[in-house]
């Protein structure tokens, strides 16, 4: 069930590694000595402070599973962003920042919640779903899991090296490249990907607002239960 | 102080308009843990019931026939974004309450399509502070933002401005809604940073 954590304190984090995922998206590996743990899919607030003392904060999904040794954030650089350019371009090993969390418990999954699982991602909406997939693999669960992933081009694909491992672990994966003449995620694609609504899958949809609105509407019209469809949107509305 | 090397940031031009712990956004993010209801506009009506002399239901056409106001306000989401100068059109809650004559009510709960609820002190929706809004920036309010109509209470955190509102239930005591049961503050004043129930 949804549960809001009380205000958790800001805690220092150190960047230990940065990894380019695409030209505009980078993963930061963080060392956080005082981390209370999280559920796959949850998010954190990130606070950056300037020499002047000015500070600001933004929420980001965690890309790492609870079982991973370190926290990972995968951040897309927004051209007019205030925080994302620093995270996705400027940050390097040894840099300091602060995080607070975890939050966003309603968009999270633990293997004990059961399956089947239907994960639907648009672009960097894959980030919190990757945490769920890594969690499923880490605990060796074999429950029915489907992943539908919409990206513009192959160059925009996050975690490309991991997708084969997910497939090998039985995750039925559908990737559609929308700019290369491919289909956008539609009702038929979601029906083909399954599981059907009668199987009452836990559904997680994450991506840009317009993507999530379209995909979630298809899922509801297909008969998926509203309370089993969890959503996380980023960017403005259409 | 933990300084992030090389970070300068963009301090807001009008910091006095930003409640504590908030940042400015030019986007209009859509926050909801679940899907936008696909039936929010079907047979739309708004009912006010509970601690009132005469419960009433307005159809969509009846709502649109009431005198409306168009106004510009800043809005503040508990997830820390603030958006300045948003322009809305809607019917003041005062005008609706005048038709039902509240009887000893001190609070209300807004009930929405999709099952969402939120509670508010009556004082926070009277005196020109709250509207049933159906227009945004000169256009019909879109479904992701709560269309066809949402409660709008801009001086409180935006989870109080319930999307897809269908009923206002007036009560003689406070009755926590969806987020409030789960630990959010009963009132949610952004200037006092009332995010959680122990703030």
Summarize this, please?
The complex is a heterodimer of chains A (238) and B (199). Chain A has helices at residues 84-90, 126-138, 160-168, 187-193, 209-222; strands spanning 11-20, 25-31, 43-49, 55-61, 71-76, 96-103, 117-122, 145-151, 172-177, 202-208, 229-234.
Strand and helix layout:
The complex is a heterodimer of chains A (238) and B (199).
Chain A: E1 11-20, E2 25-31, E3 43-49, E4 55-61, E5 71-76, H1 84-90, E6 96-103, E7 117-122, H2 126-138, E8 145-151, H3 160-168, E9 172-177, H4 187-193, E10 202-208, H5 209-222, E11 229-234
Parallel strand pairs in A: 7-8, 7-10, 8-9, 10-11
Antiparallel strand pairs in A: 1-2, 1-6, 2-5, 3-4, 3-6
Chain B: E1 23-24, E2 45-50, E3 56-59, H1 60-65, E4 69-76, E5 81-92, H2 93-100, E6 107-112, E7 117-121, E8 131-136, E9 139-140, E10 150-152, E11 165-171, H3 178-181
Parallel strand pairs in B: 1-5, 2-11
Antiparallel strand pairs in B: 2-3, 4-5, 5-8, 6-7, 6-11, 8-9, 8-10
Most extensive interface: A-B, 53 and 43 residues
Strand order of the largest sheet of chain A: 4-3-6-1-2-5
Number of helices of chain B: 3
**Assembly type:** heterodimer
β-sheet strand percentage of chain A: 25-35%
Tell me what portion of residues of chain B adopts beta-strand conformation: 25-35%
Count of β-strands of chain A: 11
Report the C-alpha radius of gyration of chain B, rounded.
17 Å
Distance separating the two termini of chain B: 23 Å
Distance between the termini of chain A: 30 Å
Main β-sheet description of chain A = 6 strands, antiparallel
**Biggest sheet character of chain B:** 6 strands, mixed
The 3D shape of chain B can be described as globular
Uncertain segments of chain B of ≥5 residues (pLDDT<50)?
Answer: none
Mean pLDDT of chain A comes to 94
